Amino acid sequence: MTVRLLGYASLPAIPVALYMALVAAPTEAFMGHSQRIMYIHVPAAIASYLSFAIVAAAGALYLWRRRDHLDALAHASAEVGVLFTTITLLTGSLWGRAAWGWWWTWDPRLTTTLVLWLIYVAYLIMRQAIDDPERRARFSAIFGIVGFLDVPVVHLSVVWWRSIHPPNFAGGGTTLDPAMQQALAVCAAAFLLFNLFLIALRWRVERLERSAARARASGRGAAGD
Predict the structure, then answer these.
(1) CA-to-CA distance for 58 and 56, rounded, in angstroms?
(2) Which of 99, 40, 186, 19 is nearest to 178 (CA)?
(3) From residue 39, how far is each of 9, 123, 143, 181 by CA, in Å?
(4) Which of 58, 146, 175, 181 is deepest in the core (most CB within 10 A)?
(5) What is d(CA 31, CA 75) in angstroms, rounded to the nearest whole number?
(6) Model confidence over 147-204: pLDDT tens digits?
(7) Helices H, strands E: what count in the chain?
(8) Whole-prediction pTM value?
(9) Widest CA span of the chain, in angstroms?
């Protein structure tokens, strides 16, 4: 039911976000239409923050309750978070090329975002490398919680270090046009809905896969007896 509701909510949200980004939002005077990449780049980054927050929260709850469905939620959220962080890095590279003439620079926010991506790619690789389910879940929970510490570093990097990125919008330091801010807010809401839909869908699939694996293991055990 949750998956279906999130899907129904995401379905109209995406075209509305596209309309706001491509039609309703004014064209930026200096960068022109290339600035519209922002309406994907920033919401994707916010969605990745949410995904990794769920990884950390589910991991902490798993360490407390030792419930397999919580580990499945952390796994699903990490996969979706890596997807949205990849989108963030790719769109940031495209935006950087259009705005400053280079695909990559070791800017604090770019660098800390790349580190965040590497952390959770390593998280997913580690999950594949550990065979024992309980040990895998325990190690992954700790890894996911520690890895989340990079999220506030990414967010505050423009405050702590000199950066080519503008100040955080929530901090009130932006001079972004109000119509652009409105379009960005709509796009962020749409991305968050879609992000939650993907997590819920992947979580459901993960639980079904684990149930099927347990059933196969029980069947083999019964056949051996």
Answers:
(1) 6
(2) 186
(3) 19, 28, 31, 10
(4) 58
(5) 39
(6) 999 999 998 887 776 666 666 554 455 667 888 889 999 999 999 999 999 999 999 9
(7) 7, 0
(8) 0.91
(9) 75
The amino acid occupying position 164 is: I
Q: Six-digit token pair at 171?
A: 């901090």
Which class for 31: exposed (0-12), middle (13-18), buried (19 or more C-beta within 10 A)? middle
Q: Helix/strand/coil (H, E, C) string of 71-138?
A: HHHHHHHHHHHHHHHHHHHHHHHHHHHHHHCCCCCCCHHHHHHHHHHHHHHHHHHHHHHCCCHHHHHH
Across the chain, which has 225 residues, the per-10-residue mean pLDDT values are 85 92 84 85 96 98 96 98 97 84 84 96 97 95 98 86 62 70 94 97 95 79 56
Q: Tokens 């800390």 identify what position?
A: 112
Count CB atoms within 10 A of the CB of residue 221. 9
- What's phi and psi for 32, nearest 5 deg? 70, -145
Q: Are 10 and 197 in contact (CB under 8 A)?
A: yes
Task: Dig out the tokens for 27 from the structure.
Answer: 């064209």
Identify the H or E element spanning 61: helix 38-65
User: Which three-class secondary structure state does DSSP give residue 74?
Assistant: helix
Tokens of 212: 């099927």
Q: For the chain, how many residues are written?
A: 225
In the Cβ-directed half-sphere of 80, how many Cα atoms lie within 13 Å?
31
Domain boundaries, the chain: 35-164+176-212
